[in-house]
Specification:
The longest helix is centred in the middle third of the chain and has 25 residues, at about 105-130. Helix 7 (about 140-150) packs across helix 8. This protein has helices at about 5-25, 40-50, 50-60, 65-85, 85-100, 105-130, 140-150, 185-200, 215-230, 230-235, 260-280, 290-310, 320-325, and strands at about 30-35, 135, 160, 165, 175-180, 205-210, 235-240, 245, 250, 315. The two termini are about 30 Å apart. Helices cover about 55% and strands about 10% of the residues. The strands form four sheets. The chain has a three-stranded antiparallel sheet with strand order 3-4-5. A three-stranded mixed sheet has the order 9-8-10, with helices on one face. Strands 1-2 form a two-stranded parallel sheet. It is mainly alpha-helical.
Length: about 325
């Protein structure tokens, strides 16, 4: 799906923390964990099948932004039907099983849309000046995560109404499902495998997860479960929580399509910067190539500044006009 300004706070905050740690002489390994399997993917594929004529047109173009926008549209369609239509919900549950089973009838489509997404994300990271040392995929953690949970049933995890849970209530937290009644590993189970994958790739002294504060309680349970499974890794884990980014009209949600994309913000910011430069008498002396570099740098700076000028714990109501203002507490002004 398209990257929206909520995701942008994640990228900007994580990159800034990494640079601060490096500036103090630490060796930093930057990783991203991409969701490429599970029910959201099934919802997207279901939506694609309902938008087949549009999908056939999108396949023929090279514009990754348009492809991401189409996938976002398909995801919104699938999410709405999942909530409102029992027959559609059953179809998506079946699709989800096909994805986990690597059913040949769905594999090619699945691989195609995942590639679109990953290639699109790469363009965003490049634009924002972020590079990752490693990209972990949820599908890589799926099999081993499930196995880890199954191997520790009745020791760490418990069977409960056809599912397998971690009994968080025994530790003053809440219970969470690690393997669903369908037999699929949840995010929670995959995070058990991810912890081991990350540590074997880069045995860090401190492992920081930059994730929004709506997952605060989730991470408390995850770290407690990991503590039972891999205590040496668990004591190195931290959750860097940050506040959500809202619009002046309310909370953003990808599943409803109520988002403001990075591209929209970037395009709008560039136009503002271009208008200001036209008013400057010295701008006529600048070569065109340098002019474009200045526009790009100031535009990205305006967006990053708007994300970083608040405490990470603070929720942000994003205001485009204030972010690109040439007066006051803004990136372009600074």
């Amino acid at each position: 799906k398209p990257v929206h300004i909520g995701h942008l706070r994640n990228i900007t905050l994580g990159e800034s923390v990494a640079r601060l740690l490096e500036a103090y002489g630490n060796e930093v390994f930057k990783a991203t964990y991409t969701s490429d399997i599970g029910l959201p993917v099934a919802k997207t594929i279901w939506g694609i099948k309902k938008l087949d004529s549009e999908f056939k047109k999108i396949k023929k173009i090279d514009d990754l932004r348009k492809k991401a926008e189409f996938l976002g549209k398909a995801y919104v369609k699938g999410s709405a039907a999942y909530n409102d239509n029992e027959e559609a919900r059953d179809e998506m549950v079946s699709l989800n099983k096909d994805i986990y089973d690597r059913n040949p009838k769905i594999v090619l489509l699945y691989q195609q849309i995942i590639k679109w997404s990953l290639d699109y994300f790469d363009t965003i990271y490049q634009k924002m000046g972020t590079k990752f040392d490693k990209e972990f995929l949820e599908s890589e953690a799926e099999g081993s995560g499930k196995q880890l949970v199954l191997e520790n049933v009745d020791k760490i995890f418990k069977k409960d109404q056809g599912a397998i849970i971690f009994p968080g209530e025994e530790f003053g937290l809440h219970n969470r499902v690690f393997i669903s009644t369908m037999g699929n590993p949840t995010y929670e189970a995959k995070d058990m495998a991810l912890a081991k994958m990350q540590y074997s790739t880069f045995p860090a002294d401190l492992i920081i997860h930059v994730v929004a504060n709506e997952q605060d309680d989730y991470f408390k349970v995850i770290f407690k479960a990991l503590e039972q499974l891999e205590p040496e890794i668990a004591k190195k884990e931290r959750h860097l929580s940050y506040g959500m980014v809202n619009l002046s009209t309310g909370k953003m949600a990808s599943r409803t399509g109520h988002v403001v994309t990075l591209e929209f913000i970037y395009d709008e910011t560039r136009q503002k910067v271009i208008e200001v430069m036209k008013q400057s008498p010295t701008s006529r002396e600048i070569k065109e190539e340098e002019r474009q570099q200045i526009i790009d740098i100031v535009s990205i700076g305006a967006i990053k500044f708007a994300m970083l000028k608040y405490s990470s714990q603070t929720a942000i109501t994003f205001d485009l006009e204030k972010s690109v203002s040439l007066n006051g507490d803004s990136g372009p002004y600074v």
